[in-house]
Fold this protein.
Amino acid sequence: MAHKIVLLAGDGTGPEVMREGVKVLRAAADAYGISFDLLPYPCGGEYYLKTGDEWPKEAFPSCKTADAILLGAVGHPDARLPNGDLAGANVLFGLRFGLDLYANVRPVKLYPGVRHKLHDEFKQVWKPNLVDFVVVRENTEGLYTPARGTLSRGGTDELAVDSRVVTRKGSERVIRFAFELAVRRGGAPKDRKHRVTCVDKSNVLAGDRLWRAVYDEVAAKYPGVERDYAYIDAFTQWIVRSPEAYDVAVAPNEFGDIATDLAAVLQGGMGIAAGGNIGDKHAMFEPIHGSTPKYAGQDKVDPIAMILAVQMMLDWLGTRKSDAKLVAAAKGVEAAVAGVLAEGKVLTYDLGGTAKCSEVGTAVAKRVVASDARPMSTKRRARGA
Ligand code: IPM
Ligand code: MG
């Protein structure tokens, strides 16, 4: 039976990277004998400017009945809702909140050959085999709880409040998700120990004292996984100094948001960083970069984050449906990406290359086809969930 996948390409460079993601998905379908039913819907700020809606009425119900969802990016500089919010954000939050996608899973893995643009030079800064951890970001509460407002008293008395909500249930389920992920992974590169780092600001915030207490309760049920604690401020320097010490880190929503943009630098930049928004019944996968309006329509940006989002989707779907073909296809896509990166010939500008977005997509897709004939490595570690 065909797996039903909703495609929300969105704004700016979203449609360009989505095209390449779909190219690779189709290549994987051919190579591994899988059938997909692809359902595209327009959405985002540009769609809002045209229609007054952020997505068509039928899109969300379709997402609810889909096997998985792929999202490109939302956000257009001119598209604002009457209240000033970015138009299109309700697509992202509509899915995260509406489908209860409580775990935002963001692998931070540096593939061999990937160089970074630091100090205006492209170099390989970190050692690839020493950067391989996953940040699990709480995705339905924290500072993103839509309990906020402004009080316009005029002049200097104007006031705005955002409520930061941390619940026992919300903390418990995402922390358990992180421990389950750690059990399945191969441990931190440094010592191969399974470890879950509890990221918070419990030295100051009441919500995070609850978060940490729940972490300790959950951790007690996983004696094989080492406990580790980091305040968010310190965490940002430690992951840069000693990324090899990390296996899985679990963080409240807003801290996970910030830490994963920083962590993306460790893996080659936002052009490579993918994420999965995962709940008990539904999941949506996306590159974590935005819609990059300044590069829209130029076939320029890196599609690898989107392609790795496809890879995470295949792995999640395969694991959920106990479907070996899907799991093998996920491994095949990852091997194809790793192959293109290691070869270093077809790379976009962000990685020091001159290739177009579509050329990178084609290069990866070609390797997915070829990888069908190769014996599959069973040692390769699964990315993400
Ligand atoms: C992300 C993004 C979003 C977020 C924005 C676009 C609302 O930064 O997915 O990390 O803050 O969650
Ligand atoms: Mg972010």
Remarks:
- Residues 324-343 form the longest helix (20 residues).
- Confidence is low (pLDDT under 50) at residues 371-385.
